[in-house]
Amino acid sequence: MKAVGFYRSLPIEHEESLIDLEIEKPTPTGRDLLVQVKAVSVNPTDVKARVARKEAEATPQILGRDVAGIVAEVGSECTLFRPGDEVYYAGSNVRPGGNSEFHLVDERIVGHKPESLNFAQAAALPLTSLTSMEGLFERLGISRHPAVNQGKTILIIGAAGGVGSVATQLANLGGLTVIGTASRPETIQWAREHGATYTINHTQAIVPQLKELGFPTVDYIFSLNYPERHWDSIVEAIVPQGKICSILPLHHSAKLDTLFSKSATLAWELMFTRPMFQTPDMIEQHNLLEELTQLVDAGKVKTTLTELLEPINAANLRKAHAKIESGKTIGKIVLANF
């Protein structure tokens, strides 16, 4: 079957940084589904994984952490899906990715694709939506019920990116006052269109901008950029006993003890934790995607697809990686059809 992968890390401009391959079609066992891949999206985690393999290896690495497709076969222990089901998911970072014609994935981290979306539109959502839902509802403990959240505020740092584009929608849907950070006219507009009540510029001092809006502190902070870039502002802006969640690690230069006097909570969100460690609650990712499907089909959450490239091949994936590396993307880049 066709696939796109690499043997060692190279600059994305190099024609061998990602190459077209022919690999063996896998066979599902246990709780695995074999999915015929119809569309994939590209995430910053794909870029990080691509640049991490410094030494050439005999086996190619296949990336791709967002997939939408059709179940072709099921393992003997599968109970949630059957052949012909249209599905979407983010997969696992410890198994081959979805940049291949067929892909194996554990059914416990797969959801039924929203009927209102095509495969490309659906492929934009899983990784960023799972990150947003786990971050907001589990790590930060935010209620899904708007009445509970009335008068509460959340600062989303990096509101126009992939995760931010979904997190703003979900937080707004939950009744929070959403303050999103963005720095360019187009990203400001995008953040507001996707649920940000207010926007501020993260290239400028954050706290004075919050105070100008009438918010000397906020109840929650969802940091989608490296948190040390804004650490002093995060510490100052969080309300006493407030909660902070970061999707990226904190550099040792940031002083954690500055949160002590506020009794503030700092939580981490890595969407891959459940599949990576095969946690007993791994099926919660299936449940979250099923919830997301209902929200999408009800018109309450919309796809964050902004650019579609066809077909799925090495040349187009190199283009997508280059755009991600620029740091100026809005929403999600998706590739469809081999």
Task: Give a verbal description of the structure.
- By secondary structure, the chain is of the alpha/beta class.
- The protein has two domains: 2-125 and 280-336, Quinone Oxidoreductase, Chain A, domain 1 (Alpha-Beta Complex), CATH 3.90.180.10; 129-268, NAD(P)-binding Rossmann-like Domain (Rossmann fold).
- Strands 3, 5, 6, 7, 8, 15 and 16 form a seven-stranded mixed sheet that branches.
- It has helices at residues 44-52, 119-123, 126-139, 146-149, 162-173, 185-193, 206-213, 231-237, 273-277, 284-297, 314-326; strands at 2-6, 19-22, 32-42, 61-62, 67-74, 86-89, 102-106, 110-112, 153-157, 177-181, 198-200, 218-223, 238-246, 265-268, 305-309, 332-336.
- The protein contains eleven helices and 16 strands.
Brief descriptors of the model:
338 residues, alpha/beta, Quinone Oxidoreductase, Chain A, domain 1, Rossmann fold, 7-stranded mixed β-sheet, 6-stranded parallel β-sheet, 11 helices, 30% helix, 25% strand, globular
- Give the domain tally: 2
Shape: globular
In DSSP terms (H or I, runs of 4 or more residues), the helix count works out at 11
First-to-last CA distance = 10 Å
Helix content: 25-40%
Which structural class do you get from the secondary structure elements?
Answer: alpha/beta
